[in-house]
Amino acid sequence: MAHDHNVNPNAPLEYQSEVGRLNITGFWTFLGAEIALFSTLFASYFALQSRVGDGPTSTEMFEAGLVMIMTMLLLTSSFTCGIAIHEMRANNVKGVIIWMIITLILGAGFIGYELYEFVHYVHEGVTLSTSAHWSIFFILLGTHGLHVSIGIGWIILLLIQLARRGLTPKTASKVFISSLYWHFLDVVWIFIFTCVYLMGMVS
Amino acid sequence: MDLKWNEFIITGDPLILGAQISILLGSIAAVAALTYFKKWTWLWKEWLTSVDHKKLGIMYILSALLMLFRGGVDGLMMRTQLATPNMEFLDPQHYNEVFSTHGVIMIIFMAMPFLIGLINYIVPLQIGARDVAFPFLNNLSFWTFFVGMALFNISFIIGGSPDAGWTGYTPLATNDFSPGPGQNYYLLGIQIAGIGTLMTGINFFVTILKMRTKGMTLMKMSMFTWTTLITMLIIIFAFPVLTVALAMQTFDRLFGSVLFTLHGDGNPMLWVNLFWVWGHPEVYIVILPAFGIFSEIISTFARKQLFAYKAMVVSIVTISVLSFLVWVHHFFTMGNSAEANSFFSITTMAISIPTGVKIFNWLFTMYRGRITFTTPMLWSLAFIPNFVIGGVTGVMLAMAAADYQYHNTYFLVSHFHYVLISGTVFACFAGLIYWYPKMFGHKMNEKIGKWVFWIFIIGFNVCFFPQYFLGLDGMPRRISTYLPEDGWTGLNFISTVGAFLMGLAFIIFVYNIYYSWRYAPREKTGDAWGLGRNLEWATSSSIPPHYNFAVLPEVTGLDPYWDMKEKGLDQQKNVDYKPIHMPSNSAVPAIMSVLMGFAGFGLVFHWYWMGIVGAIGIFITMIVRSFDYNDGYYISVEEIKETEAKANK
């Protein structure tokens, strides 16, 4: 921040200010760290996958229909988030806010179904303490779900700022960064869907 | 967790009682002094909320020196207990706690913050920048480190210290075998500090990539900046592993998951693997910046450009890649297949190649140089042979089959002290003394400094060299006592004498800080040693002004300041100043970190309401930050002119 405010008016709004550019680079770097974080969780999941002890296996618990709904909700939310950024490039504040709200509703739906799934498992007697397999299941999915929830809260704050201040280089870079985060969580979910659910249901 | 008050505050141990009383008296004295001299506002406004990378650097170094004292006292207590057979100075439980905290403190709360402090102060100057990419985050990094450190350190007076080793191996560290709050302190203290380290990693990575001054391409950066860049990259990919591992063990201990337990089909070895997937890169996080510091000092005082700059860069990058591929060598004996052991044996030995390249580069840098034997140069010279001893014994340990003999003996203890002390600790001393005039405007006294150097070097070798032989004689690490029949008495006693020599050297070092503050002549120029090569010496005054450079320097090659001096250029003089934009201070990081400490302390004792209240508080501070549109402020041309005119008068 301790540098000139050299503004480049030809770049997209979020890249125009030096601070905006730095923040975006910084956030990409942070996503690198997030990849390491989720990789560790996935590695632990694979290491503990077969350790079900006296508890049930994934095949006995997973339901394809529920997971498909969750997946569609989150994938669609990534699409609507992309449209929101498209609207931002077109300098349409209203469009950004509307598409972001749709994104958040889809995200909240995803979280709702995830909570329902967790509660359902607990009612069936499968908890964090059932076996190492279920411990890491809840921790991996819980970490992802926590990220999505924090994302929802964060984007709500940004929407308030957008409504108040309109599209400026500063608000634009914030919204753009939150969209990077949202897409990243979608990518992680694709891995969870494949490695945890699909592989868990066929084995 | 049901605790009685007499269990909550640790009682009944005279050593801990002494510590409690001295902490109490020390705190009262500090508060009284701040109140008497009316320094509270000054402390808060000028330091605690500062986003200036220079002030944060100094605060990091002060905290690290404090931790060097604490960790050192732990070390001396262990050496006292082991001085003679059947010693009754520490009981076995207390001994377990002391070696656990010694390790954690020295690695996580001494070595890393010391180096991060030097990096904070020096790297922005070396790349010709006015601050880091994210100054707010920089302050938050410091505070999370500080609060994590504080949380870890109060364990020995409130509730009891962790006692499962600095590695916190499961199943020993699970609730079944380590009940009580000790291990929770370990998990939460390191977790909070680790968040700060990750943020430092991102911050300096982006700073070095994006904020270098005009003309400074990657291959024109100083070696210290290069090592910092690569260290930050290692932090970015290694620290999330620790975050996850600590969170998983926390879940086991607090919320009943069964990941690392012996029941519920848990897998304790998973913790061991995860710990070292972080733990081995961590070793390089504390050694690479040290290599950078030695490179700077050796090239400065040999008055030569660093030999084979490109080979240095290539070897740093190679080391960083290999550092992620060797973690299994920490547990060759835990039942891995021969194939796995062979693979990790070879990758481990491979690290000695780029490291050896660097050693030769330092030697060739000095070859035909006109060497000045200043104190920082002495530390750097001593580093080379001592580090080679540590490195060669490391290659011995890398042979998986032979490791069955060395594993968990004093041979290993001696090996890692040889690399970590002669690598990291020597570099911390060398770097601090070398850059001391840059930080405080005067040098440390050279004569006292040389006494410190010799006493420490002799003490270090007297302490740790005998331990190689104790290890070969079969003395296991982490035992609290031994018998006269074991035949380890003589070497142990010698080792203890050496440890106390190092303690003596530290006391003289601290005295030297005071002595130099009182009596050392004040520096007149930015180039205190007269031999500076990089941009940190190009500032207009000995202590850089708040904005570092009135005009950002332009660089054409390696060793830019040396180049400017040869050409007789002073880029800071006779130029048209423009207003300088600087970031504003913020109280949010301090408050947010204290709330993290509050939540962490609650979780240590399973007081979940404290955790929830703390978490809500943290979210509120985040919201405050999100709505903060403070864009910083401008320093006017008049103010710059005034500051520059006053420089060095």
From TrEMBL, chain A:
<keyword id="KW-1133">Transmembrane helix</keyword>
<feature type="transmembrane region" description="Helical">
    <location>
        <begin position="136"/>
        <end position="160"/>
    </location>
</feature>
<dbReference type="GO" id="GO:0016491">
    <property type="term" value="F:oxidoreductase activity"/>
</dbReference>
<feature type="transmembrane region" description="Helical">
    <location>
        <begin position="180"/>
        <end position="200"/>
    </location>
</feature>
<feature type="transmembrane region" description="Helical">
    <location>
        <begin position="97"/>
        <end position="116"/>
    </location>
</feature>
<dbReference type="InterPro" id="IPR024791">
    <property type="entry name" value="Cyt_c/ubiquinol_Oxase_su3"/>
</dbReference>
<dbReference type="GO" id="GO:0004129">
    <property type="term" value="F:cytochrome-c oxidase activity"/>
</dbReference>
<protein>
    <recommendedName>
        <fullName>Quinol oxidase subunit 3</fullName>
        <ecNumber>1.10.3.-</ecNumber>
    </recommendedName>
</protein>
<dbReference type="InterPro" id="IPR033946">
    <property type="entry name" value="Ubiquinol_oxase_su3_dom"/>
</dbReference>
<dbReference type="GO" id="GO:0019646">
    <property type="term" value="P:aerobic electron transport chain"/>
</dbReference>
<comment type="function">
    <text>Catalyzes quinol oxidation with the concomitant reduction of oxygen to water.</text>
</comment>
<dbReference type="GO" id="GO:0005886">
    <property type="term" value="C:plasma membrane"/>
</dbReference>
<feature type="domain" description="Heme-copper oxidase subunit III family profile">
    <location>
        <begin position="1"/>
        <end position="201"/>
    </location>
</feature>
<keyword id="KW-0812">Transmembrane</keyword>
<dbReference type="GO" id="GO:0042773">
    <property type="term" value="P:ATP synthesis coupled electron transport"/>
</dbReference>
<dbReference type="InterPro" id="IPR035973">
    <property type="entry name" value="Cyt_c_oxidase_su3-like_sf"/>
</dbReference>
<dbReference type="Pfam" id="PF00510">
    <property type="entry name" value="COX3"/>
</dbReference>
<feature type="transmembrane region" description="Helical">
    <location>
        <begin position="27"/>
        <end position="46"/>
    </location>
</feature>
<comment type="similarity">
    <text>Belongs to the cytochrome c oxidase subunit 3 family.</text>
</comment>
<dbReference type="InterPro" id="IPR013833">
    <property type="entry name" value="Cyt_c_oxidase_su3_a-hlx"/>
</dbReference>
<dbReference type="InterPro" id="IPR014246">
    <property type="entry name" value="QoxC"/>
</dbReference>
<feature type="transmembrane region" description="Helical">
    <location>
        <begin position="66"/>
        <end position="85"/>
    </location>
</feature>
UniProtKB/TrEMBL annotation, chain B:
<comment type="pathway">
    <text>Energy metabolism; oxidative phosphorylation.</text>
</comment>
<feature type="domain" description="Cytochrome oxidase subunit I profile">
    <location>
        <begin position="36"/>
        <end position="556"/>
    </location>
</feature>
<dbReference type="GO" id="GO:0005507">
    <property type="term" value="F:copper ion binding"/>
</dbReference>
<dbReference type="GO" id="GO:0016682">
    <property type="term" value="F:oxidoreductase activity, acting on diphenols and related substances as donors, oxygen as acceptor"/>
</dbReference>
<protein>
    <recommendedName>
        <fullName>Quinol oxidase subunit 1</fullName>
        <ecNumber>1.10.3.-</ecNumber>
    </recommendedName>
</protein>
<keyword id="KW-0560">Oxidoreductase</keyword>
<keyword id="KW-0406">Ion transport</keyword>
<dbReference type="GO" id="GO:0022904">
    <property type="term" value="P:respiratory electron transport chain"/>
</dbReference>
<dbReference type="GO" id="GO:0006119">
    <property type="term" value="P:oxidative phosphorylation"/>
</dbReference>
<keyword id="KW-0349">Heme</keyword>
<keyword id="KW-0812">Transmembrane</keyword>
<keyword id="KW-0472">Membrane</keyword>
<dbReference type="GO" id="GO:0098803">
    <property type="term" value="C:respiratory chain complex"/>
</dbReference>
<dbReference type="InterPro" id="IPR036927">
    <property type="entry name" value="Cyt_c_oxase-like_su1_sf"/>
</dbReference>
<keyword id="KW-0408">Iron</keyword>
<keyword id="KW-0375">Hydrogen ion transport</keyword>
<dbReference type="GO" id="GO:0015990">
    <property type="term" value="P:electron transport coupled proton transport"/>
</dbReference>
<dbReference type="Pfam" id="PF00115">
    <property type="entry name" value="COX1"/>
</dbReference>
<dbReference type="InterPro" id="IPR000883">
    <property type="entry name" value="Cyt_C_Oxase_1"/>
</dbReference>
<keyword id="KW-0679">Respiratory chain</keyword>
<keyword id="KW-0186">Copper</keyword>
<dbReference type="InterPro" id="IPR023615">
    <property type="entry name" value="Cyt_c_Oxase_su1_BS"/>
</dbReference>
